[in-house]
Amino acid sequence: MIVAVNAICAAAAVPFRGEEKSAIAKQPLSGKVRITTLGLAGDEQADLVHHGGPDMAVHHYPRDHHDYWRSELGDHPLLAEPGAFGSNLFTIGITEEDVLLGDRFRLGSALLEACQPRQPCWKIEHRFGEKAMVKRILRTGRCGWFYRVIEEGEAEAGDRLEKVADGLAGWSMARIFNAIWGTTHKSDPELLKEIAELPLLAEKLRAKLVVRTTS
């Protein structure tokens, strides 16, 4: 699996709602970008409790989903921006259905490993000025996902994102997202326990699932 990376995006944390800050408004970067275990050089996270860290180093949201959002929101100006959903990587041709937990991808000289789907939050709705976007993401699974960085390196827009190692068969980002947060079915406690035991899952998410299945 090989796709071109149309844009690599980052942002500084700036005032977002009142005194609260956010770095969701990612903008395309030019030239080579350093990719470290904590994310892209120049990229920030305002809320380090819920965002950032080694298991949320790089966020990927597919361009493939923008047509769906246009059908829901019309020609919203943010949908013309590659970092509209706060993502670092913008591609076409790969979605949550295609990416397995633990899949490894070479991007430039960096090596990335898919480790969790993204849980949507209210900041998406606030940025777009549209209510019920989170509910639509929960229903449709158009969530995006996160990578941890196995090998630090550099990349730039136009580079290839190439899958170089397979993750856990049967455990796509779509399946994990739907099991944990999906709203089209009732949560299955046994399935959540199984997910919590997967060896390559992001540790913070694992801890949350343990609490959820034992409380």
Which percent range describes the beta-strand content? Answer: 25-35%
Number of strands: 13
CATH architecture term: Beta Barrel
The CATH superfamily appears as PK beta-barrel domain-like
C-alpha-based Rg, rounded:
16 Å
| Highest-level CATH class | Mainly Beta
GO molecular function, one term: catalytic activity
Domain MOSC: 27-164
Protein name: MOSC domain-containing protein
Pfam families: MOSC
Write up what this structure looks like.
This is MOSC domain-containing protein. With 215 residues, the chain is α+β, with helices and mostly antiparallel strands. Helix content is 24%, strand content 27%. It contains six helices and 13 strands. Strands 1, 4, 7, 8, 9, 10, 11 and 13 form an eight-stranded antiparallel beta sheet that branches. The chain has a three-stranded antiparallel beta sheet with strand order 6-5-12, with no helix packed on it. Helix 5 (189-196) runs antiparallel to helix 6. The longest helix has 12 residues, at 203-214. 40% of the residues are buried. The model has no long low-confidence stretch (mean pLDDT 93).
